[in-house]
Amino acid sequence: MSVGARVTAGIVATGSELLAGRVRDANGPWIAERLGGLGVDVVEIVLVGDRPEEMEAALRSLADLDLVVTSGGLGPTADDLTAAVVADLTGRPLELDEHMEKVVGDIIARFADRLRWDADALADANRKQAMVPRGAAAIPPVGTAPGLAVPPGDGFRPTVLVLPGPPREVQGMWDDAVASAPMQALLARTEPFAETHLRLFGVPESEIAATLRAAGERTDITPLEITTCLRDFALEVDLRRRPGDEAAAAAHDAVVSEIDARHGSAVFSRTGQTIDELLFDLLEGHTIATAESCTGGLLAGRLTEPAGASAHVQGGIVSYSNEAKAHLLGVPQEVLDTHGAVSTQAVQAMARGAIDAFGVDVAVAISGVAGPGGGTEEKPVGYVCFCVRTADGAEIVRDPVLPGARGDVRERSVVLAMHLVRRILSPVD
Predict the structure, then answer these.
(1) 150: which DSSP letter?
(2) What is d(CA 314, CA 11) in angstroms, rounded to the nearest whole number?
């Protein structure tokens, strides 16, 4: 295959609830990321309502692409029209797939037995969901609606992948969808991109922009696809190129070298790992506890989100009041009276108290002024104190003023605390 072979795709998310703002489209970005990993360029994501003329117009607007993926509009109700619209557009009449009728029927029957649904209505719903465009591949359902992989039709160039609306079902059937014959025929024309995913903490976008300009002054970086964005208060820099493209490979090396030279200490991931994933790995063989004030348990919730977190998270204490700090964590009253609850001295005592209370290797303490009120000239809104301490006495203490409204301050505090834990567990950073 020649360098630069390109397969393009568009995504159509259907559902009037998306346009009304009642539901956020979770499928479009997820599908786009998966297609990118397969070497497919997603050039457009479209939201449309549940009206057939709108769906048809959206599909026709993407007719010059190689692939169109739809989500939503599959199911037993009157507004589930995607399969019929795709069948008409591709010139492939709907036909009953008897095998899929039985598969869907068995699934629905199990629900009917438990919920006492009307059998006649269920039979109609079952039949509707088992109608497949001629020549298309039916994808086994995760819920009750099968997916469809429809080859290009007369007068309609793209392959069409028709998926249901619930994200759980989309994600559950994705591997089967990719393995379908129409998708495999399409993917044979491309190959996965060579990708590098850098994650930096504490570097603003303006500095990365300057770094990229500097790299571009030394090397032509235009053959390289570069995207940057802020997510979870970290800067993501994604570099993508076609395998075998020597100009893009040279541009990649120039960009990575320039980022390392200017921001190497801020790069915490080179594989796209999130701080949550990285910290989970670093905590293997360690135990951790939290002592939180202004974040109200958000950090403990974040640390316990991954399955298997019980191997290292021992517990946490939300010590919102001074009395709780004193009684639950042993913060000396003298510290509270002299320095205040929001002080480096207080969080140092809180971290020591958490180590004593839980017998852990690492403790992290947070106390701050989240706002919108309560700030002073000395300790303004956004002033947050952190202490990460190990059982053997190593310690990192910080007291920045974090920007944003109350929710921003609390969320930024959680992320900063996680990065401080990362640093104490990876002292080479």
Answers:
(1) E
(2) 43
End-to-end CA distance of the chain: 41
pLDDT in tens, 184-207: 999 999 999 999 999 999 999 999
pLDDT at 1 (0 to 100): 37
Q: Read off the tokens for 429.
A: 């950073």
pLDDT at 124 over 60: yes
Residue pointed to by tokens 């950073």 = 429
Residue 4: predicted pLDDT: 46
Cα–chain center distance at 253: 27
Token pair listed for 294: 């202004």
Q: Transcribe 91-138 into DSSP letters.
A: T--EEE-HHHHHHHHHHHHHHHHHHT--HHHHHHHHHHHTEEETTPEE
Mean pLDDT to the nearest integer, 310-315:
98
**How many distinct helices (H) and strands (E) make up the chain?**
16, 17
Q: How many residues does the chain have?
A: 429
Q: Are 413 and 400 in contact (CB under 8 A)?
A: no
